[in-house]
Amino acid sequence: MLFCLAVVTVTSLSATGWADSLFIITGADDAAIILDPQQEEAPPDLSGKMLYVTNGSRGYDISLSEGTSVTVRHEGSAVTIQSRKETISSLLGRLHIYPSELEMIGVKLSEAGIELNVASDLTFYDYVTEEVSFPVRRVPNPQMKEGEEKIIQPGADGVRSSVYEVVWSNGAELSRQFVEELDTTAVEQVVEYGTAKPAPKPSQAATGDESLTEPGETGGGIAGISENADGSGVLTLKDGTVLNYSGVRTMTATAHPTGHGGVGTRTASGTAVHVGTVAVDKGVIPLGTRMYITTENGSVIYGLAVAEDTGVKGNKIDLYYDTYDECIQFGRRTCTVYILA
Domain extents for the chain? Predict the structure, then answer.
């Protein structure tokens, strides 16, 4: 274990002028250890990682083995020295480095030695084991009627090993961003969904007066727009469909597939997530609102959509696609959202 390079002991404030410094200890493929002197609970039991905490007054210090290579980074400069049989406070004192009240001490352990980073802002990778829900992969089936679904492989929840990028600032955790999944015991659920559309009624085929009824239909895109002075207007689509809208909004849209990044399979409205489902801030766009959505430059036509889900704030929407690749291609774009009357 890399943690055998150091021993943690609790010291009194009289022993060091800054014993209330917060330590963040990291090592390759290990969960980060936070030693916060302000915490009310007892110090953690770290004996399994060859780190030892004993009873004492408020604050921590870390004892170093003699001859350990220590690189110290502080205020843009770096120096590497060999430790004596001493604590980190003693070593920093030899370098005339005394952390301020807002500065923390990052302790990174590796086979090559120890790296100390004394700063008010610290970023590190945290390796954690956590329980996760099973992911869902949706597979189109052109032989199945549109609107039908079938589970062909049941999913199972499990445990995964994950990496997070964590930022601490002025003694508090500022952000924690998921980076990657190393492994998981969760079993993917595979769902087939139908894409076969019903044949148009003879009367529709004869008159050419089709209209959009299903979320995700595009009508071939916009052929013309007639706008009124009050912001309402009429969209004429390339297939001849005419849509009346009451207003237009320019919004930031992000694409998501079900079963990835925390996206489930049911909406806040209780419906199944599918193409044409949109997540909104219901204070901006009420649930149940019908929309016609295109990217601002018209390069992507998302088409007819319904506000059925929540989870975003402000002038943003989430668009759902069937596949992860479609979402990667779309990414995040500025969209024109026509609020249908």
Answer: 2-119, 126-195, 214-340
Assign 263 to helix, strand or coil: coil
Q: Which CATH architecture has domain 126-195?
A: Single Sheet (2.20)
- Residues paired with residue 56 on neighbouring β-strands, in sequence order: none
The CA-atom distances, in angstroms, between 20 and each of 16, 77, 309 are 9, 24, 46
- pLDDT tens by residue, 14-45: 344 445 688 888 876 678 888 877 766 665 55
Percent of the chain with pLDDT over 70: 81
| CB distance 110 to 29 below 8 Å | no
Q: Residue 41 contacts by C-beta under 8 Å, 6 or more apart in sequence?
A: none
5: which DSSP letter?
G
Q: Which residue in this structure is represented by tokens 């004996």?
A: 47
CATH 3.40.50.11320 holds for 214-340? no
Could you give the CA distance from residue 49 to residue 46 in angstroms, rounded to a whole number? 6
